[in-house]
Specification:
LeuA/HCS_post-cat, EC 2.3.3.21, Double Stranded RNA Binding Domain, TIM Barrel, 538 residues, LeuA_allosteric_dom_sf, branched-chain amino acid biosynthesis, binds pyruvic acid, binds acetyl coenzyme *A, 4 domains, 3-stranded antiparallel sheet, 8-stranded parallel beta barrel, elongated, alpha/beta, 18 helices
Amino acid sequence: MSIKVYDTTLRDGAQAFGVSFSLEDKIRIAEALDDLGVHYLEGGWPGSNPKDIAFFEAVKGMNFKNLKVAAFSSTRRPDVKIEEDANIQTLIKAETPVYTIFGKSWDLHVEKALRTTLEENLKMIYDTVSYLKRFADEVIYDAEHFFDGYKANREYALKTLKVAEEAGADCLVLADTNGGTLPHEIEEIIEDVKKHVKAPLGIHAHNDSDVAVANTLVAVRKGAVHVQGTINGLGERCGNANLCSVIPNLVLKMGLEVIPKENLKKLFDVAHLVAELSGRPHIENMPYVGDYAFAHKGGVHVSAIKRDPRTYEHIDPELVGNRRIISISELSGKSNVLEKIKEMGFEIDESSPKVREILKKIKELEAQGYHFEGAEASFELLVRDMLGKRKKYFEFLGFTVMTIKNRDEESFSEATVKVRVPDEVAKRLGHDEPFEHTAAEGEGPVEALDRAVRKALEKFYPSLKDTKLTDYKVRILNEQAGTKATTRVLIESSDGKRRWGTVGVSPNIIEASWTALLESLEYKLHKDEEEMRNDEEN
Ligand SMILES: CC(=O)SCCNC(=O)CCNC(=O)[C@H](O)C(C)(C)COP(=O)(O)OP(=O)(O)OC[C@H]1O[C@@H](n2cnc3c(N)ncnc32)[C@H](O)[C@@H]1OP(=O)(O)O
Ligand SMILES: CC(=O)C(=O)O
């Protein structure tokens, strides 16, 4: 059985709180969805705003490989001739091959929201679908609140579908608009609907009861051949059915013909693109496409995964373009350590006592407040240390830092730093002394220290100029100790090519930050040398 995917990220997804796609964003998302193999793209509601009109203008000249563009609207207004309905006339100007119309199924909505009669609503549905059939290849009818309408007045809800079918709708999409329906109700209601209409059925589920994906899948099991949803489940209130789950479930679990199986590999990137453009952080534990959807932390899990990934993975992450992550923490076993050492490119015998020693050290440090997830660079330095592979690029001799505040002026900080590098490094660069003693200012003490230490070390290691501190997080670990509490500082750095995290722990926030800063720079120097060696070898 073949299932058509109808994406409404650009219309219903844009109804998510805080989301506003630009025209350029919409076009980029359309291209990505076309590449993914989605069949329909609902680009917006032309009667709503000029940006949506501009989108339909912009895509007129575009040749999509897979998707058909759909423009969305309501049925005509009550007691208005269709030729005089502004919304419908604007819709026609979009000149899309598909029009999607939502109409009322629930008597409550007809009477309270539309403030018209049940009879007039049926005429609105009939007039709109039959009229639009003259202008488009396909007219899709979205039966808004169908399940609530069915529960309130079954006869009437079914009648609205029959009218849309008689008017020529190519697909009748049953919408769980308020997202309050449960999977068993969807099944029972669709079973009944099939006895009354012959047109292909679709499903449009909202996630207010956290079952939008489940509702979509049961609808397909009951015969729906058209599934609507959004990337990352974006949408008003709690969102829509998440196509990043719906699609792989249909393809990989239910074995249905949906999009080509090899295209699933693009799903991870599409999900990240939409997250980026929507300005909403990508949810890390989102099924299939979350960064941590295949992240293994518990030692028992990692041990088993190494023996056979099927033990703790429901699918091969690469099928959806994702990847496996093994983390390091106090919950690790030797398998996590071995796996990470391998990832770092070090050779180690599986039975080496070093593995247990490293594991013990991690557990001790995490008990003191260290946290190596997110600080993989600090973990690598620890491993290097214990394997005798940590190079001493510099030696820290001392620092001072003070914060100055005069009257009403903004405060600022000053730091001085003393470092020493190996003699041969200084000589190679033509410096008489292997020492450097520098000072710098910053808005706060950590910025002043960061600037001062960089200034000191850049003299000997110019590549450090590329390194930037991109994130700085502080966590107080034992608040009850008041101002003596232990502080954990996590720093994220980047050199434009890579990102890495380091951690420092101390009752003194400056010292914790200092440790994390120094490790960040040291890690960068290790990576630069490794890269140079690889380049020479290749
Ligand atoms: C379930 C869904 O997701 S439906 C899509 C919801 N999305 C949106 O609303 C986003 C885009 N909306 C908009 O830009 C605006 O609401 C517009 C342009 C559509 C309408 O704006 P306005 O004319 O100012 O009306 P307003 O938004 O206050 O009220 C909605 C109107 O639509 C009417 N309406 C609602 N559903 C339907 C329908 N299926 N058929 C016809 N009219 C409808 C309401 O009766 C109301 O009209 P009235 O005030 O004349 O009675
Ligand atoms: C059509 C639509 O968006 C809904 O009923 O939720």
